[in-house]
Design brief:
α1 runs antiparallel to α2 and α3 packs antiparallel against α4. The chain has a single domain, classed as Alpha Horseshoe (Serine Threonine Protein Phosphatase 5, Tetratricopeptide repeat). The chain has about 210 residues and is mainly alpha-helical. The termini are far apart. The protein has seven helices and no strands.
Length: about 210
Amino acid sequence: MMLPTQKKTWEMSAEEHFTESETLKSKGNAAFKENNYLKALRKYTRAVDILEDSSNFDEEQKKKSSITLCALYTNLALIYCKQHDFSQAIIQANKALKINPNDVKALTRRGQSNLTLGNWDEAKVDLKQALKLKPKDNYIENLLQQCNDKIKQYQDQQKSLYSRMFSQKKSSKKSTDNNNNDNVNTTNSNSDININKNVENKTEVNQQ
């Protein structure tokens, strides 16, 4: 008995797009709960592929598709965070935020990724916005505190660096000034010797 072949996305009706993508999303969620991130990644990615092929969607169906896509993108961002692929996590979060700029999960995932990559200013903007949208969230507060600590640590290091550079420059200038003074004193000393010799010569001449 031959198994039915899987339909290509362009062969599906709009309703089949939604049914198949929701099935895949549910399977992805189940795999994620089992910590099977690779399987979840495959399911979510396939669901995204189906919904992104929306050439036969009407306006209402496109709106419905966007909501599901936003959730899928944020789920993908989370998986990439789990896999420590933070650059890819940012790409997925960007896609979600293009649909909904105030998606708290997408803001948090992008903020977390930028924080880990050392892009602290970008991370702070996202995390502050996420906390504004979801006040008193412990996870977001903790990430934002880490971000502020990193920024302060960097600023303190920069201040210390510039302070040392200024001290070295000041010390070098002082050393140069001292050398110049030594040269002047030597010249004066030689002049004194010459003067003394002239005086002695004059005395001798007078004695003669």
